[in-house]
Design brief:
Helices cover 23% and strands 31% of the residues. This is C-type lectin domain-containing protein.
């Protein structure tokens, strides 16, 4: 069962004209399920935050920066965290630092559902590939996610990744593709941050 927030700020998506979404600030305390029902009845749905512009719009509505908010993504069987696309172009290490400073971490995608979310967010990228939290260690000779899990997906594009990869490479997803690519970590591109570790507990 979804827990209620001790302090609740609820964001709901309103009418959309073109690509401009109107957000409404609802100062009520409720769990995620009730919040979704409320927004669908009164407006359109819980807010979807998919890029920096959406994040800025939603953030400006918060009167208390330390308060938690519900948005239109939640933990399900796939355990998918909310994600945000950053249009700045950074190296892999710079992307990690940015995500950890301003959000949670560079996005990890340990299962099919998470990979599909990464793919959906990546479609708005301005670079051919986007960095994710996948990195190769030459010392131990395996790929791992920044959340500490060893990579076991096997979803590499043809000729990419796997054991024996080049040192100094990290994982990226190509725009409009759901395969992983092994690219030099010094390459600069857009990247995807996770907004929290556990959306049920942290949003």
């Amino acid at each position: 069962m979804w827990r209620e927030m001790s302090v609740m700020l609820l964001l709901s998506a309103g009418v959309v004209w073109g690509r401009s979404t109107v957000y409404h600030f609802i100062n009520q305390k409720m769990n995620w399920t009730n919040a979704q029902s409320y927004c669908r009845e009164k407006f359109s749905d819980l807010a979807t935050i998919s890029d920096e512009e959406d994040n800025e719009k939603a953030f400006l509505l918060r009167t208390d920066e330390s308060a938690n908010v519900w948005i239109g993504l939640h933990k399900s069987n796939g355990k998918v965290p909310p994600l945000i696309l950053i249009h700045e172009q950074k190296t892999w290490e710079e992307a990690v630092e940015y995500c950890r400073e301003f959000h949670h971490d560079l996005a990890s995608a340990n299962d099919l559902r998470a990979r599909e979310w990464v793919q959906a967010v990546a479609t708005d990228a301005t670079t051919p590939h986007v960095w994710v939290g996948l990195h190769y260690t030459c010392v131990l000779e395996f790929w791992f996610w920044v959340d500490g899990k060893v990579y076991v997906d096997g979803n590499w594009a043809t000729g990419q990744g796997g054991p024996g990869s080049d040192c100094g490479t990290s994982g990226a997803m190509r725009k409009n593709d759901n395969k992983w690519y092994s690219l030099p970590s010094t390459q600069k591109m857009n990247f995807i941050c996770s907004l929290c570790n556990d959306p049920q507990a942290s949003l």
